[in-house]
Amino acid sequence: MTVQRAAVQRASWRQRARDPGWGLLFVLPMLVLFVIFRFVPSLGAVGMSLTDYRLSGDFSFVGADNYVRLFEDDLFFHSLRVTLLYAAICVPLALVVALGTATLLHHVVRGQSVFRGLLFLPYVTSFVMAGIIWTWIYESDGLINGLLEKLGVGPVPFLTGNQAMVLASLAVVSVWKSFGYSMLILVAGLKNIPEDIVEAAKLDGAGPCSRFWRITIPLLRPVIFFVLVIETIAAFQVFDTIYVMTGGGPARASYGLVYMLYDQGFKFFDFGYAATVGVVLFLVVFLISLVQRYVLDREKT
Amino acid sequence: MTATIEAQTPPRTYPTQAHRPRRNRANVWLTLLLVLASVFTIVPFVAVLVLAVSPESAPTIPRQLPDDVTLDNLTAVLSASSFLRWTLNSVLCSVVSVVIILLTAAMAGYAFARKRFPGSTALMWSFLATLMVPIQATLIPMFVLVSRLDGVNTFWGLIVPTLANSQAVFLMRQFIRELPDELFDAAKIDGAGEWTVFWRLVLPLTKPVLATLGIFVFLWHWNDFLWPLVIAQTDEMRTLTVGLSTLNAESVARARIMASAAISVVPCLIIFGVLQRYLVNSVATTGLKG
User: Fold this and answer.
1) Model confidence over A139-194: pLDDT tens digits?
2) Mean pLDDT of all residues in B77-88
3) Which helix or strand (DSSP H or E) is residue A159 part of?
4) φ and ψ at B172, to 5 degrees?
């Protein structure tokens, strides 16, 4: 029986080795797409950042001029600060909301699937739709300020106030639209925590709070890190809500990195410079995932 | 210390009864908090609906509920030719993307899982490596490339550059690798050709994962914004998201915008309603990223 099976397996291996053409043929359509629309543009971004490419298609090689210009550009450092500040607000907020709702869902006895559905619902909408609704919710005669008015509290300038207020308001919209995904990942992580560890802690007299901090959180750490990584990367790529809700304003208070890239590319048509911003965006995101990776590996050992 | 605790512990007669009141109270609090969280996610949808059916320039929420309910906004939006055109564009782009990505990703996943060919490992890794490059970082060279190929403001320019999807390939590869070897050997012994194996064996067996992937690909493409924003240059090439953002930027009446937003989210809500359980469960099992 085993001999037979091994013979069949060996035959199929030989078959596979004999026909390398079929493997390539099956990969070919996707490979062509990847080469043209991922690999070439990735290298192209680096190449273009070394030129003064303009809309007309004329360009000349300018070496590192764009990078020098970028590091002397106050606007670039401003947009980098905006993005970092936005991520510093958005990522913890998303994590707390996702972890909180995941924990509630894990422990609630009845209606788990209904609540899960209701909480996940905004994930299926677009950031554009989310931006349009929340612009109204934030307006001076919108939902929140309308309710505050009834309590006799003055209008809060959510999208026209100071920078922290505007970025926090934008972060709430992103969290509303996408925390459901992280929540589901965390719910799956919670399900994987062995029941007997929790039971043992209960018998030892650990209350719900200490069980959460001393057992759930440490055992959930890898999942939490995964969620942190995807939320951080998403926060650095924020664009849609800024475009729809503030247009980078007021007074460039929400002028993030990707918004700067779009602005330089499609308002000033300074493609070489915009490509440079893109390369720096890649480096920043890459650096942050390396750091998170390093921290995660150190936590494991 | 242990002795005192043991001494204080009441004899264990019916522990469930002793715990029940406290557990019930805790459960009420949990449920209450979940209701609050659900209010946070649901209220914006309800608000859009109320505004969409409120008469234009009549008092409405948050001051008061509208006195009248009207379908004027919805019918006005649906009869506006550009809105229908944007919807058709979105449907076309999303459906074509789903079909092509499912087919090409299944083919590539099959090759990576079951075929040996020179450079297959390196190729798989180079596909995965593109996950590290944010799509925004390559926006400018992509745009220049597509404009050199005369793809700006065309359907192929909207669709084809978004089809290279490493998550889809990786997911299909993982799933096809788990299929039992015996099936493929049996097919070989029966003399099935490569295409037969793919169409008659791989595709039917991967139906569940194809369905999940299809839902996600549809949502990603239906909700995509930045790429169609730079590619669609005339009104009749805009997708729904881009069209909505232009309505929002122009001074169109609030009720009209909200009616458009309400209609734009309907396909996603239908998908969600029908496939909720499926969609929600698959996030954990497949690890598909939004």
Assistant:
1) 888 888 888 888 888 788 888 889 999 999 999 999 999 999 999 999 989 988 88
2) 86
3) none
4) -65, -40
- The DSSP letter of residue A154 is P
Output the CA–CA distances (angstroms, integers) from residue A143 to A126, B133, B244, in the order listed: 20, 38, 21
Q: What are phi and psi of A241, to 5 degrees?
A: -65, -40
Q: In angstroms, what separates the C-alpha of B2 from chain A's closest C-alpha?
A: 11
Partners of A61 in the β-ladder = A51
Over residues B69-79, the mean pLDDT reads 82
Tokens 């009209």: give the residue: B256
Compute the nearest-CA separation of B74 from chain A (Å): 16
Alpha-carbon distance of A72 to A86, in angstroms, equals 23
For residue B180, what is the nearest residue in chain A, using CA coordinates?
A9
In this prediction, residues A81-85 reach a mean pLDDT of 95
CA dist A114 and A183 (Å) reads 14
- Residue B243 has φ and ψ, to the nearest 5°, of -60, -45
* Angstrom distance (rounded) from CA B267 to CA B190: 44
Residue A121 with chain B: CB contacts under 8 Å? 41-42, 45, 269, 272
Helices B254-286 & A127-138 angle (0-180, nearest 10): 130
Angle at B241 between CA B272 and CA B244, to 5 degrees: 115
Judged by CB atoms closer than 8 Å, whether chains meet at A17 and B142 is answered as no
For residue B255, name the pLDDT band (cuts at 50, 70, 90).
confident
Q: Give me the pLDDT at residue B110, please.
A: 93
pTM: 0.86
Closest in A11, A142, A180 to B62, CB measured: A142
- Measured CA to CA, the distance from residue A247 to residue B245 in angstroms comes to 11
Amino acid at A158: F
Query: What are the pLDDT digits (tens) for B151-206?
Result: 999 999 999 999 999 999 999 999 998 888 888 888 888 888 888 889 988 999 99
Rounded to an integer, the average pLDDT of B247-252 is: 82
- Structural domains of chain B, ranges and CATH numbers in brackets: 84-242+271-286 (1.10.3720.10)
Topology at the third CATH level for domain A73-300:
MetI-like fold (1.10.3720)
- What is the residue extent of each domain of chain A? 2-49, 73-300
Query: What mean pLDDT is predicted for residues B114-126?
Result: 88
Q: A16: which chain B residues are within 8 Å (Cβ-Cβ)?
A: 114-116
Q: Give the rounded distance of the alpha carbon of A282 from its chain centre.
A: 13
| DSSP per residue, B185-204 | HHHHHTT--HHHIIIIIIHH
Would you state the pLDDT for residue B12? 46
Cα–chain-centroid distance for residue B127? 21
Closest CA to B73 of B87, B52, B51, B49: B52
Q: Looking at residue A61, what DSSP letter applies?
A: B
Predicted confidence (pLDDT) at residue A298 exceeds the cutoff of 80: no
pLDDT at A299: 67
Phi, psi of A61 (to 5 degrees): -70, 125
CA–CA separation, B163 vs A35, rounded Å?
Answer: 12
- State chain B's mean pLDDT as an integer: 84
Give the CA radius of gyration of chain B: 26
Per the omega criterion (within 30 degrees of 0), is the bond before B59 cis?
no
- Residue pair B283/B104 in contact (Cβ under 8 Å)? The answer is no
- Its sign, for the CA torsion A79, A82, A88, A90, is negative
